[in-house]
């Protein structure tokens, strides 16, 4: 499986020590299967250092780009933003999961 981690997961990992350790473990275990989206990098580099800032910078358009990128390479989006990806999955054939997918592979669609 290929995983694309959404910016909200990275941000929570940066700001929540326990979650950050889980993110590091997931990264270590799945590094060969991880891809990094240019949209996620853009969100992080434009100042989305906190969850509130990330929400203010996030747009549905960015989520569409992430979903389309993931679909093209067959990746599963690891996200805490289930609402947007649930909407997108009705029109784009994508899979998305809550962190951490190996403990609960409940991919939608």
Provide the helix percentage.
Answer: 40-55%
The main sheet orders its strands as 2-1-3-4
Termini separation: 15 Å
Q: Any idea what the radius of gyration is?
A: 13 Å
The main β sheet shows up as: 4 strands, parallel
Q: How many helices?
A: 6
* Class by alpha and beta content: alpha/beta
| Secondary-structure element string | EHHEHHHEHE
Mean pLDDT value: 86
* Gross geometry: globular
Strand share of the residues?
Answer: 5-15%
Low-pLDDT stretches: 104-109
**Strands, total number:** 4
Return the domain count.
1
Question: Could you explain how this protein is built, in words?
Answer:
It is built from 6 helices and 4 strands. With 109 residues, it is α/β, with parallel strands linked by helices. It has one domain (2-97). The protein has a 4-stranded parallel β-sheet with strand order 2-1-3-4. Strand 3, helix 6 (82-88) and strand 4 form a beta-alpha-beta unit. It is globular. The model is unreliable at 104-109 (pLDDT under 50).
Characterize this entry briefly:
By secondary structure, the protein is α/β, with parallel strands linked by helices.
Descriptors:
109 residues, alpha/beta, four-stranded parallel β-sheet, 6 helices, 4 strands, 12% strand, disordered C terminus
Topology:
Blueprint: E1 2-5, H1 7-15, H2 17-30, E2 34-35, H3 38-45, H4 51-57, H5 60-73, E3 75-78, H6 82-88, E4 95-97
